[in-house]
Amino acid sequence: MSITRFAIGATAALALLLAWIGQDGLNEAPTATQAPMVSLQPVPPTVTTTTSTTSTTTTVPAPTTTAWQPALVDPDTPCQEWVPLMLEEGWPADRDIIETAMWIMWRESRCQPTADSGPDHGLFQINRFWSSDRSNPPNWLAAKGIANNHDELFDPRINVRAAWAIYQYSLERNGDGFLPWTTYSGKPSTTSP
Questions:
Q1: 182 in any annotated domain
Q2: DSSP per residue over 6-24, as a string?
Q3: How far is CA 16 from CA 13, 21, 190, in A?
Q4: What does the mean pLDDT of the chain come to?
Q5: CB count, 10 Å around CB of 139?
Q6: Contacts of 32 (CB under 8 A, 6+ apart)
Q7: Residues 121 and 35 in one domain
Q8: Can you spell out the DSSP letters for 20-52?
Q9: Do residues 135 and 129 touch, judged by C-beta distance below 8 A?
Q10: Strand partners, 127
Q11: SS3 165
Q12: Bridge partner list, 171
């Protein structure tokens, strides 16, 4: 609906209201013979389309507003296309953790889920150790119900889920969740990776 149509409709409604209550009714309280003034509430705009035989009315919902929320990562953070998946898989909406994870993902795989360096697979380049008999328990990822074999880590969802489990394990055991990644050496620098 255009603003012009809305303005015309509002003007017409006001004119009808003034005619109904009378010009003098604006300055004095209603009497027993006069109808009391009615408070008008905003109504969502309607659009009416008329053809030779039918009429259709569509109600357009009022616009919704949401409170402004700061971005979870800086606009120049690499790999941020994977943030929604990470949040779905349980990673916390913590700016420091997510930005560090994005930095590691960039260094490990350049954000490519098919990255393969032999013993390391996927976005976070999860090492074969986590899915082999050398882990404790053997095939730690399978024991956690995450991946039955190492090649499943090429699936971005499984890789992100595995990285989160490894992060939590390392956080509990070492006090720092990112220690299993050799590209991690503490908080990343503010310059691009």
A1: no
A2: HHHHHHHHHHHHHHHH-SG
A3: 5, 9, 64
A4: 77
A5: 18
A6: none
A7: no
A8: HH-SGGGTS---TTSPPP-PPPP---EEEEE-S
A9: yes
A10: 120
A11: helix
A12: none
Token pair 């908080």 is found at: 187
Strands 55-59 and 120-121: unpaired
If we measure between CA atoms, which residue out of 15, 188, 17 comes closest to residue 107? 188
Do 112 and 165 fall into the same domain?
yes
Is this structure's pTM higher than 0.70? no
CB 82 within 8 A of CB 105: yes
- Residue 83 and residue 73 in contact, taking contact as beta carbons nearer than 8 Å: yes
Residue 116, token pair as written in the block? 């393969």
Q: Is 176 helix (H, G, I), strand (E, B) or coil?
A: coil
The model's pLDDT over 152-169, given as tens digits with 9 standing for 90+, comes to 999 999 999 999 999 999
The SS3 assignment for 105 reads helix
Q: Is residue 183 part of a domain?
A: no
* 17 lies in the same domain as 46: yes
- Please indicate, yes or no, if residue 118 is contained in any of the structural domains: yes
Q: Is the N-terminal amide bond of 137 cis, ω within 30° of 0? A: yes
CA 107, 112, 114, 119: dihedral to nearest 10 degrees? 10
Count the domains in the chain. Answer: 2
Q: Which residue has the higher pLDDT, 9 or 144?
A: 144
| Residue spans of alpha helices (H) in the chain | 3-21, 83-88, 95-109, 140-143, 156-174
Query: Residue 168: which domain range?
Result: 80-174
Indicate if 109 and 55 belong to the same structural domain: no
